[in-house]
Specification:
The protein is α/β, with parallel strands linked by helices. Helix 7 (about 135-145) packs across helix 8 (about 165-175), helix 10 runs parallel beside helix 11 and helix 10 packs parallel to helix 12 (about 295-300). Helices cover about 30% and strands about 25% of the residues. The strands form five sheets. Strands 11-8-7-6-5-2-1-12 form an eight-stranded parallel beta sheet. Strands 13-14-15-20-17-18 form a six-stranded antiparallel beta sheet, covered by helices on one side. Bound molecules: alpha-D-galactopyranose (GLA). The site of alpha-D-galactopyranose (GLA) has 10 residues, from loops.
């Protein structure tokens, strides 16, 4: 009898503590009020990471203006882990990170930045290292002890797993630690995470891996910038504060992208309220590419507190006009993915910009976000030359 009372109270205790996960959601839901910003190691270093390189990048983010521009998370991707010990605890690659992950996280925090790490919902990561399957709570505790602030969870070796169940399990494990940790769902859009991701993670990949070229067909599961934009475009109803569509990390400064293509890539990520995780080697960044990453006017469009994902307003085939409603107006982007330049005249007078639904009766200043120049008011037509694979991006602000 006594034993069954004991068992019953233990069961009640467990039930009440699991119920409190829901109630304890405040630190969790407030984590990504605007799209997360930072840097991730994968797009430039892949598996070739180590603590020296990562610390150099941290120092640069502080000294090159990126921290001031809003880049907050320093995230290491795959290949930091090698095995599990006899208790199942994840073992860090000592050759790459001789001081351990906690020391690295401490270093990142000492610079006023936040620290992110990578795992996989399946048994193995995409590079073949141990994943978190069956170790979710154990790993979450380890991450919390290290001071992790951001977790990207991948989807390799997940055969037979249910995505909603798997990611909810990690969400619950993270919440149980009591440390607010942003959860980035990385299952490449395979199970339409936009339909269930809100409340599970703070952002979810909508496509396969982004490649550092503008156009191109699918290439070992990845795709060029223009194709990713196409795939992410129609998912706008699902994004908003705390829950973002993630068209993947930035390739600005990587591969064969031209100056215009880098600008277009960055602009369209801002128009789509996408997370802005730079992925280039900041030790070698060109002046032009750094200026792109540091364009505070473009970043302000991405980070607008309304959290409205911009959308296509006009579609002339390879030439499109995109609009994003802002708290005090609208961002308008003339996007030319065609092979020749586009001379476009658009009348701003009486224009409500469709889904952005501004009141055309109000007066707005029209500003060119890349030229950093006020052009005039919304009382007339404007003509622009939009280069091939390029953009003209404007901000209309209510006077
Ligand atoms: C997958 C992800 C990438 C990267 C690699 C690491 O391909 O989509 O973003 O994390 O795994 O192996």
């Amino acid at each position: 009898m006594k034993r069954s009372i004991l068992l019953l109270s233990a069961a009640l205790l467990l039930a009440s503590s699991s119920m409190s996960y829901g109630q304890g959601k405040e630190p969790y839901t407030g984590l990504a009020a605007t799209p997360p910003m930072g840097w991730n190691s994968w797009n430039c270093f892949a598996g070739d990471i180590n603590e020296t390189k990562v610390k150099e990048i941290v120092d640069l983010i502080v000294s090159n203006g990126m921290k001031d521009a809003g880049y907050e998370y320093l995230n290491i991707d795959d290949c930091w882990q090698v095995s599990r010990d006899e208790n199942g605890k994840i073992v860090v690659d000592e050759k790459k990170f001789p001081s351990g992950i906690k020391a690295l996280a401490d270093y990142v925090h000492s610079k006023g930045l936040k620290f992110g790490i990578y795992t996989c919902a399946g048994k193995k990561t995409c590079a073949g290292w141990p994943g978190s399957r069956g170790h979710e709570y154990q790993d979450a505790i380890t991450y919390a002890q290290w001071g992790v602030d951001f977790l990207k969870e991948d989807w390799c070796s997940s055969e037979g797993q249910d995505a909603l169940y798997s990611y909810s399990l990690m969400r619950d494990a993270l919440q149980a630690t009591g440390r607010p940790i942003l959860l980035s769902i990385c299952e490449w859009g395979s199970n339409e995470p936009w339909k269930w991701g809100n409340g599970v993670g703070h952002m979810w990949r909508t496509t396969g891996d982004i490649m550092p070229f503008f156009v191109g067909t699918v290439y070992w599961g990845g795709q060029g910038i223009a194709e990713i934009i196409e795939k992410n475009a129609d998912l706008y109803p699902y994004a908003g504060p705390g829950h973002w569509n993630d068209p993947d990390m930035l390739q600005v400064g990587n591969g064969n992208l031209t100056y215009d293509e880098n600008k277009t890539h960055f602009s369209m990520w801002c128009m789509m309220a996408a997370p802005l995780l730079a992925g280039n080697d900041l030790r070698k960044v060109s002046k032009e590419n750094l200026e792109i990453l540091l364009n505070k006017e473009a970043i302000a469009i991405d980070q607008d507190p309304l959290g409205f994902q911009g959308r296509r307003y006009y579609d002339y085939g390879d030439r499109e006009i995109w609009v994003k409603r802002l708290t005090d107006g609208v961002a308008v982007c003339f996007y030319n993915r065609g092979e020749s330049s586009w001379k476009v005249t658009h009348n701003f007078k009486g224009e409500s910009f469709g889904p952005a639904a501004i009141n055309p009766g109000n007066t707005y200043t029209v500003r060119d976000v890349w030229a950093h120049k006020d052009l005039g008011l919304n009382d007339r037509s404007y003509t622009f030359d939009v280069p091939s694979h390029g953009v003209v991006m404007l901000r209309l602000t209510k006077k």
